[in-house]
Specification:
Elements: H1 3-22, H2 36-56, H3 87-98, H4 100-106, H5 124-127, H6 130-139, E1 141-142, E2 145-147, E3 150-152, H7 167-178, H8 190-199, E4 207-208
Parallel strand pairs: 1-4
Antiparallel strand pairs: 2-3
Bound molecules: heme C.
The site of heme C has 30 residues, from α4, α5, α6, β1 and β2.
Length: 237
């Protein structure tokens, strides 16, 4: 390729480019770009008009004339919405949820499992003296036992519940089992459970039914709140 050829090509390119640059885009009338000075004037007018409008109009008032009535807090309170429940109803409500611990063996119906877990429904251990019942709940039970005429002797027996459940929980769940499944019995209070727990600290193992026979009819002394649950009569609904 010779030098003259290159020059020829370059000149050609220049020629084509300058022709393109020369020719104006053929836009239809009215679609041409607005001239720069017109855009500038429009901006000046917009700024002046805007500030004039701002000066003429009343300043915005941020004071509010509205008064607000206090709106009740719809969230459940820390007592789980139980503020209006009497002591017995509250114990029944909390006992019902704590009963999940017992229900795994004694069943949700309180009927137990034949040959394996004795029933709480209609059991003399449940509706009888509170001393024996609280002792069973706290430390558990093992060895042969007869409930409602049927014998049980499940290996391992009933594990103690007094480690997982506090005195108030035990009181609630025992009030619940004494007043569910057709049972009726006065409330068991936290103070009663605390009293029994204090007297059995020297007993490390599960009870046997024979050991507890002497407490079969003994009730732990203590005040029961007046109202439903104070006696063995069915709670007013
Ligand atoms: C792991 C299974 C298991 C759990 C959990 C359990 N129990 Fe028992 N319970 C038993 C067994 C087994 C016996 C019988 C023990 C024996 O043979 O001496 C028994 C006996 C009893 C008795 C005396 C007999 C009767 O049926 O009335 C009571 C009262 C009782 N349990 C209440 C409770 C309560 C209340 C809870 C919950 C706080 C509870 N149990 C949790 C297995 C369980």
């Amino acid at each position: 390729m010779s030098a003259s050829n290159i020059n020829h090509d370059t000149n050609d390119l220049d020629r084509i480019h300058s022709a393109v640059k020369r020719e104006k885009l053929d836009l239809p009338a009215g679609n041409e770009a607005a001239p720069m000075w017109a855009i500038f004037i429009a901006m000046v007018v917009a700024v002046l008009a805007g500030s004039h409008l701002g000066m003429m109009s009343k300043p915005l008032s941020i004071e509010s004339k509205a008064t607000f009535a206090p709106v009740p807090d719809p969230r459940p309170s820390s007592t789980g919405g139980a503020d209006n429940l009497d002591p017995f109803a509250l114990a029944m409500k909390k006992g019902a949820s704590a009963y999940a611990v017992c229900g795994g063996c004694h069943q949700g119906t309180g009927m137990g499992v034949p040959g394996q877990f004795p029933p709480l429904a209609g059991s003399e251990y449940v509706t009888g003296g509170t001393e024996r019942l609280i002792r069973i709940a706290l430390s558990g039970l093992q060895g042969p036992i007869t409930v409602k005429g049927a014998g049980y002797n499940t290996p391992g027996g009933m594990p103690p519940q007094g480690m997982a459940l506090g005195d108030q929980d035990i009181a609630n769940v025992l009030t619940y089992v004494r007043n569910s499944f057709g049972n009726e019995g006065p409330m068991v209070t936290k103070e009663m459970v605390t009293k029994v727990r204090g007297t059995i600290t020297g007993h490390p193992a599960q009870w046997t039914a024979a050991e507890l026979e002497e407490f079969a009819k003994k009730n732990v002394p203590g005040d029961i709140p007046a109202g439903p649950g104070a006696t063995g009569a069915p709670a007013a609904k």
